[in-house]
């Protein structure tokens, strides 16, 4: 498996994994109607535009040329954050290959790039019910930072995300 920067040709696979992982990982978190309404075509267009714009980093893990998962990151978007703070915007691996190392490879490469780009720490937001992801983040060195949760509405349901943070230095 290798981790490389996404190209426009990867947009479809990125979108397929995005939608498939949401539908499995968020089944009991996000409403069924919202999950059913997710469109691969919509996400393909969105990711195609993001790849073209180069505004954020998008890395894909490929095995025999097939995308297994992806990670997106950039400067922290939280209000008041410092330029030295990165944010893991999203990481999604195809549910068919969960727990086979793709996520770990993606994170380790993203972390290398964050360090090269001068970032000192990395934060992320995660649903507190997302036990698989939280276990993964703990293994990768992230801890809940104790800040206030973020509340928002999605598909008619009230949801909450909590913030995790990791220092990037060794
Ligand atoms: C969370 C997710 C990205 C993890 O990806 P993955 O490819 O399944 O993870 P890996 O196979 O690399 O990690 C697997 C194992 O290595 C461990 N691990 C991960 N990173 C590690 C690290 N840096 N050091 C040591 N161990 C690590 C994990 O705890 C995990 O344990 P397991 O074998 O008991 O499953 C994936 O499950 C996913 O796409 N979930 C749905 C989407 C999601 O919730 N994304 C996060 C949104 S906030």
TrEMBL record:
Signal peptide: none annotated. Keywords: Acyltransferase, Transferase. It comes from the Bacteria. InterPro entries: Acyl_CoA_acyltransferase, GNAT_dom, YpeA/RimI_acetyltransf. Residues 1-169 form the N-acetyltransferase domain. CDD domains: NAT_SF. It holds the Pfam family Acetyltransf_1. This is N-acetyltransferase. The keyword Transferase applies.
